[in-house]
Every structure is written in C-alpha cells, then in structure tokens.
Design goal:
about 500 residues; alpha+beta; Catalase HpII,  Chain A, domain 1; 2 domains; 15 helices; 10 strands; about 30% helix; binds NADPH dihydro-nicotinamide-adenine-dinucleotide phosphate
Length: about 500
C-alpha cells in the first residue's frame, strides 16, 4: 500500500465529490435507510459485481513484467522482428499458474503449471502459452473438457475424486508420459521461479523467403530446478497456500529478478516426414539427441504489477496470437486451443478484452475493422471506415506477412489415433534414463499415495499402463499398492480394449 500523503477528494465513479463514506442516509439515527442515498446503492451495486468468471482452467496465477533479449541469431529461420537482432529487447508480461484448482486453491498442489509469455513486439503481441511440462495428457481437443472435468470436482459430492481422475487416465493411455512427469517431483515445483516453461506444441518458424521449419520452445530456469517432495507440498498447503505467488512477488520486490534462457529445437519439413515420433503429437518430446536445443535469448522478470486484478486477472493469453515469422502447426490439440483461448477470454472479459492495457499491443498501433461491443472504451476508431475494402484510406492487409502455404490432404473423418508401443517409449525413457534413484522412489511414492485412493480395478488398469512403460516401474507401483504383480503383468500384456473389459467391474 502507498504511504500516507495529501489526500484527494473522494468521488463517485462519475467524478462527483462524496460528502460521507461511512454513514448511510437514514430517516432518523436508527434507520431505515433511504433509497435516495445513491452513493450507497452505487457502492453496493458495484461491489456485487466485483467478481468476473474465474478461468475454467489456470484460475490461480501470478504475473510480472520484464524483458526478453535476443542472445543468438536465428534470422535464417524467422522473420519475426523481435528476434531480428542480437541484443534486441522486447517487453514481456508473464503469467504463471496452477491448472486444475480454483482461484483460492493452494500453489503447491500437484498439477502442471501454466507458463504464458506475452511479447509486446512492434508487429503486435505474440503469446507463447505453455506449461512447465514438455508434453500433455491428451492429443485430441475433443477430449479436453472431459479431461478437465475429471481433474475438478465430482458433480454429486463436490469433492476431488480419485476414481474420476484415474478412471479417465487409465482409459486414456496416451497420458502415461505426462502422468509420469506429473507424479515426479516436477509436479510440485518449489516456486514459479524454479521451473522450466515449454511450448509443448510444435510451431512453425518462417523467414522472409517463406522457407519454414518446425520448432519446440523451451524456457530453461536460470534459478535451477527446485521441487517440493510430495510431503513438503502437502505441508505447504497449510503453511502458505500462496507460497509461489508470494515467492515471485517478493523476489522481484527485493531486486532478485528471475530469468530464463530460451532454447529452440529445430526440425526441417523433410525430417518431419519420416521422424520416428509424430512431431505434431503433443504427448511426445523430441529427444535432445535427435534435435539438440540451440540458444535464442534470455528473459528477465523485473517489475511487479501495481494492481493484481487489472494486470494479472485481466491478462488474457492465446496461442493464436502470432506475429509474422511464427505460425501454427497441424498439432490437433494446438488447433483446438487456437479457438478455445480467445473464446474463453471473450466469455470472461468481453469481446473488447484486447483493449485492456495489459492485453493491448504496446509497441505498435492496433488498426482493425472490429467495432462496438460491450465495454468498447477507446474511441472505437472514430469516424474512420468500418468496412474492407474501402476507398477512404482505411488500413489495408499486407500479403507479405502470410505464413508459407503447407500441403494438407486426406479424407475428412474422425481419425482416431491408434495406440501403439511408441506411446509408452518416452515415459519409459524418462523413468529409466533420466530419473535418479531418488526421483524414481519419489515418483512411486507419489503415485501410490494418490492412486491408492481409487477403486482397485482402476488401480489395476492404471498400473498395467505403468508396466507397459517400464516393467520395473509397474512392478514397484503394484507392490506399493499391494496389488498382485502377476495380475498386473497379465493386464499389461492385453490390448487396451481387453484391459478395459477385464477391469470393467
Ligand atoms: P535428455 O537426457 O537429453 O534430456 C532429459 C530432459 O529431461 C532434460 O531436459 C531435463 O530437464 C528433463 N528432466 C529431468 N528430470 C525430469 C523429470 N523428473 N521430469 C521431466 N523432465 C525431466 O533426454 P531426451 O531428450 O532423450 O529425453 C528423455 C526423456 O526426458 C523424454 O522422454 C522426456 O520424458 C524427458 N524430457 C525431454 C525433453 C526434451 O525436450 N527432449 C524435455 C523435458 C523432459 P532439465 O535439463 O531442465 O533438468
């Protein structure tokens, strides 16, 4: 709060001076209250409307401003002006969040963390809307609302429900990679400063000649990865449910500015054609051995917001906010998000949310033919033409900025992904090759304490999936849960269809 200083006169929302802000107008000292006290009714009516719909996902978050600086030249890959020169700086606003919890939920919950960066570039705003995990649970957007329902509350009890949680995941085996990351200690980061951010999806970069490549973006923390153990995270829920929000604010306030290094993995269109993993499947990473990451830049957060609601709650990100030089890939989950994010913001903030200061472009003007709508609080483009084409000097499109055309063909149908052994490889690699003994021990313990609350048939079905990723991984979970290891192995050897039938009751 600001220090005491000479006070201005209190006014209504319309600027008229207020004579008294503690005593309502009443008929006599004991009431009743008179409706002629318009200051009272206005004050109550505005208060009644203080809450806007909370985000259906990523409701609890914290944000800060800073800058992104280019450290390495990638101009042969992209025409994006904010990446055009080593040393160039662009203002950013970053919002971190948990995903499944409500606005008042604890920061230390086991959950992926949102990692959304808004670059205020001179060609408009570019949003990198990622997570602290490089993959996701599902790869078709039609499954998204169902998946989120299972992470939220049971419709009857209004409680988080381990049966819903594990029922869906065990019926969705492509989730095994993300589940393995989520139940490792990376599922409970110590703070927002001590985690990486990943684009998770594949995106396109294209240059002036309209040559393109596919990329994955990784923001690597320069504070080092630090996580809570499951036990520490549980304890922290009671000690300080806002620990990550507080940590970020306090660090920036004391001048300890957190930073991340931006790396990209680059894949040519030719490499994409026959790569052993589908490069547009968000349940997969591109192993570093195949596609070594290269440095691009450095991001520093150095300024706290002055007003949480105005700047963090009203900040609105969309993976559909591209600038020339960066474009979407065919990733099905990304394609769903390209619609859903703008739509969610329109619902939450209204159709003119792009005019709010935190969302508006800062480094270039906005000149569109969109007009009117709720809360159009700028000049609404005055008397200038509101249609295109026009012969009255209105802004014109620039065909030069279009992304390169890419060839797409096929039968229009609901194409299901076929589950294959390939869907278990990366979860297994993570367990076997990347995790330390201690990581594996914590992973098993975290799974057992959560999955142990679900029905036995769901425990069996899910543990069979761990077994498919890695036999030892599955066996250790089975033993931790007191399941019959041979039964788990039998289930693991079945097709998913048979497994579901065998665990139906
Ligand atoms: P590498 O050994 O080259 O890289 C391993 C990566 O795993 C590092 O980026 C590391 O991040 C990260 N990591 C370490 N511990 C964990 C954990 N508990 N949960 C999640 N990530 C962790 O291996 P590959 O590239 O061949 O990939 C092997 C496996 O590593 C993958 O199957 C995937 O599960 C995981 N991984 C891969 C990433 C990629 O882009 N290739 C990115 C993140 C994870 P850091 O360097 O920050 O410690």
């Amino acid at each position: 709060m600001p220090k005491e200083r000479k006070r201005d006169t209190l006014t209504t929302g319309f600027g008229t001076p207020v004579d008294d802000d503690v005593s309502s107008v009443t008929a006599g000292p004991k009431g009743p209250v008179l409706i002629q006290d318009v200051h009272l009714t206005e004050k109550l009516a505005h208060f009644d409307r203080e809450r806007i719909p909370e985000r259906v996902v990523h409701a609890k978050g914290a944000g800060a401003y800073g800058y992104f600086e280019v450290t390495h030249d990638i101009t042969k890959h992209t025409r994006a002006k904010f990446l055009c020169e080593v040393g160039k700086r662009t203002e950013v606003f970053v919002r971190f969040s948990t995903v499944g919890g409500e606005k008042g939920s604890a920061d230390s919950e086991r959950d992926p963390r949102g990692f959304a960066v808004k670059f205020y570039t001179e060609e408009g705003n570019y949003d990198m809307v990622g997570n602290n995990t490089p993959v996701f649970f599902i790869r078709d957007p039609l499954k998204f609302p169902d998946f989120i329902h299972t992470q939220k509350r049971n419709p009857a009890t209004n409680l988080k429900d381990p049966d819903m949680f594990w029922d869906f995941l065990s019926l969705t085996p492509e989730s095994i990679h993300q589940v393995t990351i989520l139940f490792s200690d990376r599922g409970t980061p110590r703070s927002y400063r001590h985690m990486n951010g990943y684009s998770s999806h594949t995106y396109m970069l294209y240059n002036e000649k309209r040559e393109y490549c596919w990329v994955q973006l990784h923001f690597k923390t320069e504070q080092g990865i630090q996580n809570f153990t499951g036990e520490e995270a549980d304890r922290m829920r009671g000690i300080d449910p806002d620990c990550a929000t507080r940590d970020l604010y306090d660090a920036i306030a004391r001048g300890d500015h957190p930073s991340w290094r931006l790396e990209v993995q680059i894949m040519t269109p030719e490499q994409a054609k026959d790569y052993r993993f589908d490069p547009f499947d968000v349940t997969k990473v591109w192993p570093h051995g195949d596609f070594p990451p290269t440095d691009v830049g450095h991001m520093v957060l150095n300024r706290n917001p002055e007003n949480y609601f105005a700047e963090v709650e009203q900040s609105a990100f969309s993976p559909g906010n591209f600038v020339p030089g960066i474009a979407a890939s065919p990733d099905k989950m990304l394609q769903g998000r390209l619609f859903s994010y703008h739509d969610a913001q329109r619902h939450r903030l209204g159709p003119n949310y792009h005019l709010l200061p935190v969302n508006a472009p800062k480094a270039c003007p906005m000149k569109s033919y969109q007009r009117d709508g709720f809360m159009r609080f700028d000049s609404n483009a005055g008397g200038s033409p509101n249609y295109w084409p026009n012969s009255f000097g209105g802004p014109s499109p620039n065909p030069e900025v279009a992304p390169p055309p890419i060839e797409v063909s096929g039968i229009a149908a609901r194409h299901a992904y076929e589950l294959g052994d390939v869907d278990f490889v990366q979860a297994g690699d993570l367990y076997r090759k990347v995790m330390s003994d201690e990581d594996r021990e914590h992973l098993i313990g975290n799974i057992v304490s959560h999955l142990g609350n679900a029905q036995k048939r769901l425990q069996l079905r899910q543990t069979a999936l761990f077994c498919k990723a890695d036999a030892e991984y599955g066996e250790r979970v089975a033993k931790g849960l007191g399941l019959n290891v041979d039964e788990v192995k039998r289930l693991a050897a079945m097709s998913q269809e048979e497994r579901v039938k065998a665990t139906a009751q």
